[in-house]
Amino acid sequence: MATALKLLIFTVFSFAVFLQGTNGASCDTSSVQVQTINTGATVGGGDMVFEVEVKNLCPCAVRNVRLDGGGFATTVDVDPSVFRSDDGAVYLVNGGEPIASMATVSFRYAWDHFFQMTPRSLDVDGQC
Predict the structure, then answer these.
(1) SS3 call for 105
(2) Looking at residue 70, what is its pLDDT?
(3) Are 49 and 112 in contact (CB under 8 A)?
(4) pLDDT confidence band for 2 (50 / 70 / 90)
(5) Average predicted confidence (pLDDT) for the chain
(6) CA-to-CA distance for 94 and 97, rounded, in angstroms?
(7) Rounded CA separation 35/55 (Å)
């Protein structure tokens, strides 16, 4: 009986900590997954079309997600509210607006090769 009570108390405590969250302590650039996929389509003079998916793996919403663009260029327009240059080779995702936990923001670009993009910075959006 005492073991069951201890288990119940531990479970309730663990659940309360889970609900309270980490207040962003565990959310950093490793919490953002960037995946570039060759769609198989081509445009214009034969440039390949790539789709970039930026996924928030943090249990909290994040905002002001910035990526290092790795020399990014494109021959097709990219919606600037989704992905735009913020400071030279640094790019702002989703216009700096929050990206919910486990949500994905995606955009397409075209070039003769893919660009390696890596998370540079982010802010945790409010309480987590």
Answers:
(1) strand
(2) 87
(3) no
(4) low
(5) 85
(6) 6
(7) 8
**Closest of 31, 38, 53 to residue 119, by C-alpha:** 31
pLDDT of residue 128: 74
Angle formed at CA 29 by CA 119 and CA 18, multiple of 5 degrees: 145
Q: Name the nearest CA neighbour of 90 among 62, 111, 70.
A: 70
Residues in contact with 41: Cβ distance below 8 Å, sequence separation at least 6, in sequence order = 48, 49
Q: What is the C-alpha to C-alpha distance for residues 65 and 29, in angstroms, rounded to an integer?
A: 9
Return the residue matching tokens 């663009």. Answer: 69
pLDDT band at 22 (very low <50, low <70, confident <90, very high): very low
Kind of pairing, strands 32-43 and 104-111?
A: unpaired
Task: Decide: 117 and 36 in contact? Cβ < 8 Å.
Answer: yes
CA–CA dist 25, 7 (Å, integer): 27
The model's pTM is 0.79
